[in-house]
Design a protein that fits this description.
Distance between the termini: 39 Å
Strand content: 25-35%
Oligomer: single chain
Largest sheet: 5 strands, mixed
Strand order of the largest sheet: 2-1-5-3-4
Shape: globular
Number of helices: 1
Radius of gyration: 11 Å
Structural class: mainly beta
Length: 66
C-alpha cells in the first residue's frame, strides 16, 4: 500500500497503525505530532488508528536543544 509521509511516497504494509508507522520511521525517541489528510491524530489514538492506502501523513518530531 502506498502513502505519502512528509511529502515522500512510501510503500507500507496494510493494517499498519499510526504507532507502527512512527516506529517504522524511527521516531521512537521523544514526542511526535501526526496529521493524516490534514487531521491531527491525538496521541491516545495512535495505537488504534490505521493508516490507509493513499493517506497523506505529516509527522513532526520534537527535539530539544538550544
Amino acid at each position: 500500500m502506498q502513502v505519502y509521509v512528509n511529502g515522500a511516497s512510501r510503500e507500507i504494509e496494510e493494517g499498519l497503525t499510526v504507532r507502527g508507522l512512527i516506529e517504522r520511521l524511527g521516531f521512537t525517541e521523544g514526542p511526535v505530532a501526526v496529521e493524516i489528510n490534514r487531521t491531527v491524530i491525538p496521541r491516545a489514538q495512535h495505537a488504534a488508528h490505521r493508516v490507509c492506502d493513499g493517506d497523506a501523513v505529516e509527522v513532526v518530531h520534537f527535539v530539544g536543544g538550544g
